[in-house]
Amino acid sequence: MYEFEYERPLEISAALKAVDADSAFLAGGMTLLPTMKMRLARRSRLIDLGGLTELRGVRAASGRIEIGAMTPHVEVQDSSEVQLLLPGLARLAAGIGDPLVRNRGTIGGSIANSDPAADYPAAVLGLGATVVTNLREIPGDQFFTGMFATALAPGELITRVSFPLPRRCAYLKFRNPASRYAVVGVMVAETSNGIRVAVTGAGPQVFRVAAFEQALAKHFAPEALQGIKVPSDGLNDDMHGSAAYRASLIGVIAARAVAMVAVPG
After folding, report:
1. For 51-77, what is the mean pLDDT?
2. Measured between alpha carbons, how far is 262 from 215 in angstroms, rounded to an integer?
3. How much is the mean pLDDT over the chain?
4. Mean of the pLDDT values across residues 60-64?
5. What whole-number distance in Å separates Cα of residue 5 and Cα of residue 48?
C-alpha cells in the first residue's frame, strides 16, 4: 500500500472541503482498501465518512424508503420498515458477502463503486430509485455509466438513496461460492411506472431487460419469460462463466424471482 493521508471529518462540509482530485471518500472500505493494499489504486488522502452520523439510518416517508449513504447492509437487512414495506431489498442486503462485509459495507459505498457484480445496483435500477447527493438528485436509470463508473462528478458525495415502494418485487442471485458476488443477479419489480427487470453480474454494468419487462407487463408469471433469449453479446466471459452461460442463467434466475412474488392462478 502506498502512503496516504487520513482524515475523519465530523461534518459533511468538512468532508467536502477536504476532498480533491487525488483523494477519495472512504465509506465501508470493502473495495477501496483491498485495491489500495494490492497497489491497484493510489490516493493521496482518504476522507473517512464514518463520523458523519447524519448520513446513516433508514426511514419511511411518503411512499418511499430513504436510506442514508453510510448505512451498513446489516441495518438495511434488519430494518423493520424495510422488512415490512420493501422485503425484496431486505433479502438483497441479507445476501451480501459475509457478516463482516454486511457490518462494514455501506449502501453508498456499494453504488458509488459500481462493481459490475454488486447487488445494490440491481436494486437501484430495478426499483427506479433516486440517488441523492450534496448537489442534486440522480435517477437510477442515469446513475451507472459503466464498469466502476457512475454519473458522480469529482468530489460529489452521495447522501442517501430514495426507493419508491413497489407493488411487489424480488431479488435473486446465483452467487460465486467464494466471493458471494453475483455471477447473475436479477431484481424484478412491479412499480407504479410499470415492470422493471434489472440484471447485475452478467455484464460490465447493471442493465435492464426490456423484453422481460414487456412480457411480464402482459402476464406477471414465470412462464411469460419462456422462449425469450437474452443476447450474449457484450456479457462477461470469464473463469466463472461464459457469456452464453450467463445469458441463459439470466432467464432462469429472472423466472425464479418472478415466481417468488407472483400470485397463483
Report:
1. 96
2. 14
3. 95
4. 93
5. 11
Q: What letter would DSSP give residue 44?
A: S
Q: Which CATH number fits domain 168-261: 3.40.640.10, 3.30.390.50, 2.30.130.60, 3.90.79.10?
A: 3.30.390.50
Per DSSP, the three-state class of 115 is: coil
Half-sphere exposure of residue 70, counting CA atoms within 13 Å on the CB side? 16
Cell 447522501 sits at which residue? 159
- What local confidence, expressed as pLDDT, does residue 265 receive? 54
User: Comparing C-alpha atoms, which of 28, 15, 6 is closest to residue 157?
Assistant: 15
The 3-state DSSP composition of the chain as helix, strand, coil percent (nearest 5) reads 35, 25, 40
pLDDT at 138: 98
What gap in Å lies between CA 46 and CA 37, rounded to an integer? 13
Cβ(243)–Cβ(186) below 8 Å: no
